[in-house]
Request: fold
Amino acid sequence: MKNTVFIAKSLDGFIAGENGDIDWLNSIPNPDKIDMGYTELIQKIDAIVMGRATYETVLGFGIDWPYTKHVFVLSHSINSIQKDLKNKVTLLHGDLNDILKTIHKKGYHNLYIDGGSTIQNFLNEDLIDEMILTTIPILLGSGFPLFGNLNQPLAFDHIESKVFLNQIVQDRYRRRR
Amino acid sequence: MKNTVFIAKSLDGFIAGENGDIDWLNSIPNPDKIDMGYTELIQKIDAIVMGRATYETVLGFGIDWPYTKHVFVLSHSINSIQKDLKNKVTLLHGDLNDILKTIHKKGYHNLYIDGGSTIQNFLNEDLIDEMILTTIPILLGSGFPLFGNLNQPLAFDHIESKVFLNQIVQDRYRRRR
Reply:
């Protein structure tokens, strides 16, 4: 069983700027649209776990549902999933450890944990095993931070670093247990 | 003329933990005491610029004065330098651009900017040209952050990344102007 974070952040640790600005994520020219490991990650995982905000952001893109793996949306406020997504999305809420038990019982063990608040909640319960962090070389100065307060410090092992497009550093860390 | 930052930070961007804790900086075993580029940096620079807090922290170590280059201490509250350091330390205060003019006039052009508040103040005035950031693979959860609010986003170019001790990533960024 493994919970993996795969996310892009600014040099000062934000995943979105003021007012949710994410234009800076594409500030480095990427003519061949390399995906920096995203497809490889999606192939490896069994399911995606995200928060309500991320779910609604994706819906708001107005594109076809982009996920090829089952998505678990953590929310206390959403009561139902729109019809066409009922086979693709499951709503869950409650204690994170209970949520994980539920997901594991359904046969999903290798999980991609996405969304700022969800990642922070998982880290606060020490439930993240691996983090693949992609750093865009910009200081935003403000916005929504990737990391938040923790109950305790968490040590990781550095696994590897890659540089994409000569500008973007991607570091892989594994929780030291 | 160049202003360089060379500093270690946690994975979540802190340069000190709660109550100024910096023990985690040495959490990765370093039996051969490699300096990760520090000596090379000191050789390249003409002088060091630091804030009062860093200056007093260094004095508090109770060791011999560790700097071989002239140190400019930015402080509104300190009025004098202890006798034995008078040839090694100069006090300055005022507007950062004026301070830089003063330092440049004295013949120091290649500056190492140190200390959390000082680095943040320089960045806020877009006065940092290069940053060498050394990342210890630990999430602290709280403490004194390296980066703060900015008047505007600042784009950098990634120059190189190195991995020390198989665990510590050091990234060099240059301000894109």
User: Anything to note?
Assistant: The mean pLDDT of chain B is 97.
